[in-house]
Write a structure and sequence with these properties.
By secondary structure, the chain is mainly β. The protein is 13% helix and 41% strand. The strands form 5 sheets. Strands 2-1-6-7-8-5-3 form a 7-stranded antiparallel sheet. It is globular.
Amino acid sequence: MAWNVWVVNTHDGIRRQKLPASAFPWDRVLNASGSGSVTIQLRDKVTSQLQYMDLTTPLTRTVVLSWNEKAVYAGIVWAREYDRDAGTMTLTVADVWSMLAARLALDRGATNIAAGLLTWSGLSLATLCAKVVQAGITAPSNDWKLPIVYPVDVAGNSSRTLYGYDFPVVADVLDELMAVQGGPDIDFMPQWTEGADPAFRWVMRAGSLKDGAWEWNLAAEKSGVTGLKWKQDAGKVTTSAIGRGEGSEKNVIHKRVQTDGLGYALERVVSGNQKALAAVEAHTRGHLATYQTPTEQWSMGIQANGHVPVSDLQLGGSVRLWSSGDPVIPDGLTVLRLIQFSGDLGLSVNFGVQTAGGA
C-alpha cells in the first residue's frame, strides 16, 4: 500500500506520466479550495529521464495523488520554482476551486455581455450551484473545458438570476449560494475513471453531503487516533444580524434577523450584493443559523493504512468516536462531521471535524 503521483492534462484529465515526488503536503477542505506543494528531485535517475519542464507547465497540468490507485487529492499547477543548489523543482498546486475563482458565469452568446443574463428557476440550491459551474466552463474552445462530472438536476423552489453587468465570479456565486439558510455543501471529489487507461475527473457533490461513516474507539488501547484536540471559539458568534444588499445610504436593501434567550447579544452586519429583499434575508438567516452559538473545532490524526484507509474518506461524512472516562469528551458516542483532511507522502493523515450543523 503506497502513494503514487500522476500528471494529467488539466482540460481533459488524460494521464501523461507518473511523477516520482519526494514530498507532497496536501489539504482537502469542504466548501473551499485545498492547496498542495509537490517537490521533485531533478537529479534522481528516474526524474532525469522525464520531460519534467513539460510535465510541470502551470495551468495546463494537474497533479493527482492516489492511495492504492484511488485518487485522494488533485491540484492544478499554478507555480513552479527551481532550486539549482538543492536540485529540486517545487510545484504550487490548488484544486479546482482555484480555477473557478478565475471564471465568470456569463451569457457568452450575448452580443453585449454586460446586458446579458443567466436565469434558472424551479431548482434546488444544489442544482443551481451546478448550473453556475457549468456556465463558467462553457465556452467555444477546449481551453475552457474542465473534466467535471455534475450531479443530476433536482427540482426545488429556488431561483437565481445572474446579471452580466455584475461580471459574477463562479466561486463567489457558489459562496453566496452555500451561505443562505439551508444552503448546500460542495465538494469536488477527485476520481479516476474505470478501465485499462483511466482518466482523471472531478466529481461535483452538492447538497447535504452525509455519505460515509467511520468509527474509532478512543477508550481502546490502540484506538488508531492520535493528537486529538478540541476547541470552542465564540469569536464569530452573532445573535442579531443585519443583512445588507445592494443600494446606498437610506435606500440600501437590508433585513434584520435576531435570536433571543441565549444569555448574550452580539450584533454584526452581513454584507452581500443581493438585489432582492428575500435573497438578503435568506443570506442573513443562513449566517445567523451558523454563528449564533460558539464554534466547536476538533482535530485528530489517523494512519493512511489504518482500519479506515485514507482513500475511503469523503468530506461531509460522519466521524464516530466512542469515549469512556475522558475529562472533556462525553462518555458514549460523539458524532462529528469531516470538514477537512490533509497529509503528505507518509502515513499520517490529519482531520478537521466539527459537530453536526456547526461552523
